[in-house]
Amino acid sequence: MKAIVTVVGKDNTGIVAGVAAKLAGLGFNIDDISQTVLDGYFTMMAVVSGDETVDFTKIRQDLETFGQELNVKINIQSAAIFDAMHNV
Asked: Which SUPFAM superfamilies match (predicted)?
């Protein structure tokens, strides 16, 4: 399964490392990643891949909870949603 992960929040040390470690712990591989800091705000977008049988609801909750620990907002969406939008 491919998914898109976004991370937004006040810039702070260790956000990329923390999110990457959390994703790895959840069984995801980062296929592509882009991040920047805009006026003190950190933004990241990553394409990740993982097991097709993953419980997406649980993964979303785990990432939201972890984001609170890092003081950022983490969101994950299935890449199939984006693919479907462009096939209409």
From this structure: ACT-like
